[in-house]
């Protein structure tokens, strides 16, 4: 809000001043067929046409065909990858119904595809050799924690993704789209994070190489999402291993405490059996049961208080 709100207010004042001046010019013309209501209607129709990509920002008609085969193919990819730029949207009833059905089946299948590609990528970063000074023994996990391994793999895999899928495409979009490097980098990040604002969309022009250009963008989106999914899996596994280790440690403490309690009970029973020879059997048995029960209750309350 603090970053964007002042700029929005400045643009609102500029548009308000522009509309006010233009309305005054229309009134000075005193033309009966061009009223203020007619002018607002024309502006409304032009804005709707711009939303449908029928005219550019200057009001000129575009030769760009929205629903050509390659543009429809690119729209389908943005749907099933959940990028959803919003630069194209179905307008007809049948188109909206088909888009819903297509997304219901296409998104899960695409998620499986991206997951399988991410698994292929993860094998590239699997540790084939152990670090120096470590042997492949059952105590290997104790020597080097799983969280450190996951963190290292995540950081190593993040650097190629940053340059190959963000920096290099940003420079390419700078020359092909006419954007600045920051705008290209912003578009790459918004796309691969599936945010998809739609303020920047690559390939919104008509040239001879548009087919190859958009197919390359499609592969860039799929492999970029798969690579990012692999990095997120590394981070998730690291956090999950931490939770598992905490649970195992708590269980180990409980097992040790229960084992010590059982040992102390057994020792107490052996002591009571030793004293049974000096007392009557019936009386010593009753005393032993009572003392064992009192000993268990005392240890139970002690452990319960310690856990709290």
UniProtKB/TrEMBL annotation:
Top-level taxon in the UniProt lineage: Eukaryota
A GO term, aspect molecular function: outward rectifier potassium channel activity
Descriptive protein name: Acid-sensitive two pore domain K+ channel dTASK-6-like protein
Organism of provenance: Euroglyphus maynei
Transmembrane annotation, as ranges: 64-85, 97-118, 154-173, 185-205, 211-235
InterPro entries from the UniProt entry: 2pore_dom_K_chnl, K_chnl_dom
A GO cellular component entry from the record: plasma membrane
Signal peptide stretch: none
Predominant location: membrane
A Pfam family it matches: Ion_trans_2
Gene Ontology biological process terms, A to Z: stabilization of membrane potential
Family the entry assigns: Belongs to the two pore domain potassium channel (TC 1.A.1.8) family.
Lineage: Eukaryota, Metazoa, Ecdysozoa, Arthropoda, Chelicerata
All residue ranges annotated as the Potassium channel domain in the record: 62-122, 163-240
Protein location: Membrane
Keywords: Ion channel, Ion transport, Membrane, Transmembrane, Transmembrane helix, Transport
Keyword hit for Aminoacyl-tRNA synthetase: no
Record membrane topology: Multi-pass membrane protein
Entry keyword annotation includes Flavoprotein: no
Gene3D superfamilies linked: 1.10.287.70
């Amino acid at each position: 809000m603090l970053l964007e709100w002042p700029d929005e207010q400045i643009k609102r004042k500029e548009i308000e001043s522009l509309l006010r001046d233009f309305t005054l010019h229309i009134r000075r013309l005193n033309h009966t067929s061009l009223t203020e209501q007619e002018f607002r209607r024309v502006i409304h129709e032009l804005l709707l046409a711009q939303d449908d990509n029928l005219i550019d920002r200057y009001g000129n008609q575009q030769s760009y065909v929205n629903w050509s085969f390659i543009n429809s193919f690119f729209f389908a990819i943005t749907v099933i990858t959940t990028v959803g730029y919003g630069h194209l949207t179905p307008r007809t009833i049948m188109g909206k119904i088909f888009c819903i059905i297509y997304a219901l089946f296409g998104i899960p299948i695409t998620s499986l595809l991206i997951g399988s590609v991410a698994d292929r990528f993860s094998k590239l970063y699997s540790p084939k050799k152990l670090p120096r000074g470590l042997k492949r023994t059952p105590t290997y996990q104790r020597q080097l924690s799983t969280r450190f391994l996951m963190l290292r793999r995540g950081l190593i895999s993040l650097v190629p993704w940053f340059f190959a899928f963000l920096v290099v495409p940003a420079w390419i979009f700078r020359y092909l789209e006419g954007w600045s490097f920051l705008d290209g980098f912003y578009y790459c990040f918004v796309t691969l994070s599936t945010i998809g604002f739609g303020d920047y969309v690559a390939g919104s022009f008509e040239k001879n190489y548009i087919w190859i250009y958009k197919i390359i963008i499609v592969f860039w989106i799929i492999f970029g999402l798969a690579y990012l999914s692999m990095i997120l899996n590394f981070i998730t596994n690291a956090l999950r291993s931490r939770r598992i280790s905490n649970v195992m440690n708590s269980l180990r403490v409980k097992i040790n405490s229960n084992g010590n309690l059982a040992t102390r009970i057994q020792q107490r029973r052996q002591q009571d059996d030793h004293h049974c020879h000096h007392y009557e059997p019936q009386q010593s048995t009753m005393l032993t049961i009572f003392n064992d029960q009192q000993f268990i209750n005392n240890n139970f309350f002690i452990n319960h208080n310690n856990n709290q």
